[in-house]
Amino acid sequence: MAIIGLKRPVYAIALDDSEGNITYSAGSVLAKAISLSSSPNLSDVKLYADDMVAEALKNLTDVSLSLNVDDLTDEAKKDVLGLTIGTSGEIISRGDDTNPYIGLGIVAGVIRQGVRKWRGIWFSKVIFAYPSETFNTKGQAIEFQTPTLEGTALVDSSGVWKTENTFDSESQAIAYINGKAGII
Length: 184
What we know:
Blueprint: E1 2-3, E2 7-16, E3 22-29, E4 33-49, E5 52-69, H1 74-81, E6 84-85, E7 91-92, E8 102-112, E9 115-128, E10 148-153, E11 162-167, H2 170-181
Antiparallel strand pairs: 1-8, 2-3, 2-8, 4-5, 5-10, 6-7, 8-9, 9-10, 9-11
C-alpha cells in the first residue's frame, strides 16, 4: 500500500465517561491538511529468566501526532485548543487554559495493487498543544508559514485509540469520518 494523499481533517469535542462510553459533539472541518504524522509510543518490557528473555511485551502507551494545516480559524482555536473568544472577537490565551479532548478524523488516499482506495481514519481521543508560530519578514521571496499542531492520541475508556476503514470512493471515506464527528 502506498499512501498518496491527505485531506479533510475533521474534529469533534470528545466526552469520555468512566463507563467506556465516548461521545462527540460540535463536529467541524478543522482546516486543509498539509501533513500528518503519527508515531505510536510503546512500553517495551522484557522478563529475563534462565539468562534469556522468557517473555516480552510491547504495549501502546500513547501516540504522538503532528498535524500541519493551512490555517486555524478562531473557532478551531476555541474548540481544539480551549482558547476563549472575547466579546470583541479577540482570541484570549490564558496560562490556565484547559485543552479539551477531541476526536480527529482524516481521509488518506492509497494505492493497493494498482487500484486507488481511500482510508477514513478516526483517532478517538486526542489532545493538542498550542502550536509554535514563526513570523518572517517578506524579503524577495514569500515563504508560507503554517501552523503545526503537536498532540497526543490516547486510548479511550473503551480501550480504543484509532479506528479506520478503507473504501472504494473518496465520498465514502468522507462520510465515514463525518459520521464519527457527527457532521451532517
